[in-house]
Amino acid sequence: MEERFSGPVSGSGAFELGPKPKVPGALRASFLLWLIAIGAGVFETGLAVMEALSGDSGLGMGVIVGVGVRLIVFGAAVYVASRMRLGKNWARITLAIVLGVLGTLSLVVSPISWLAGGHSIVGFLAGADTMTLLFASSRIVHTAAVLAATAFMFLPSANAYFRYARSATGRRQD
Questions:
Q1: Does residue 18 form part of some domain?
Q2: Is residue 5 part of a domain?
Q3: Tens-place pLDDT, residues 78-90
Q4: DSSP character for 20?
Q5: Which of 55, 77, 83, 158 has the fewest Cβ atoms within 10 Å of its own Cβ atom?
Q6: Angle at Cα 38 formed by Cα 33 and Cα 39, nearest 5°?
Q7: pLDDT digit string, tens, across residues 29-66
Q8: In a domain? residue 3
Q9: In the chain, how many domains are there?
C-alpha cells in the first residue's frame, strides 16, 4: 500500500510552523536503489580494471581516464541522489534524465544490439566465463535498480513531498 504524504498544502495550515515532514518511503527506497545502482557501477568498473590488469596491455591511459571519469560520475550521482532525498526537484529531474534515461540507454543498447544480431541468451550463458557472468549479473542489478529508483521518485507520496518542499521554501528550489 502506497503511503500518503500529509503535509499542509493550503489554507491557514500552510503558515503553521511544525516539524519537517518525514521523507516518504518511496524516496527512501529510491535513494537506496540509486546507491545500489552506483555500487553496481563501481563493481563493474572494478571488474574492468581487473580484466585490464590480467591482459597483456595492463592499465593503459584509456583505462585510467575511464576509471577517473566514472568515479567523478559516481560521486556526482551520490550527491544528486542525496539532494533528491532532501526534496530538491532539480535533483529528481536530473536523475530521471541523466541516469534514468541516458544511463539506462548506455546500459542496454549493447546487449539489445547483440540480441538483435541473432545471438541467444542460452548461447551466451553456455560460453560465458566467470568474469563475464559477474559483469552480466552486475549489469542486470544495475539496470533494474536504475529503473526502480526512477519509478519510485515519481510515486504520489514522492510528488507530494516535492510539492511540500517547494512550497515550504516559498520559491523555486536551488
A1: no
A2: no
A3: 999 999 999 999 9
A4: P
A5: 55
A6: 95
A7: 999 999 999 999 999 999 988 888 887 666 778 888 98
A8: no
A9: 1
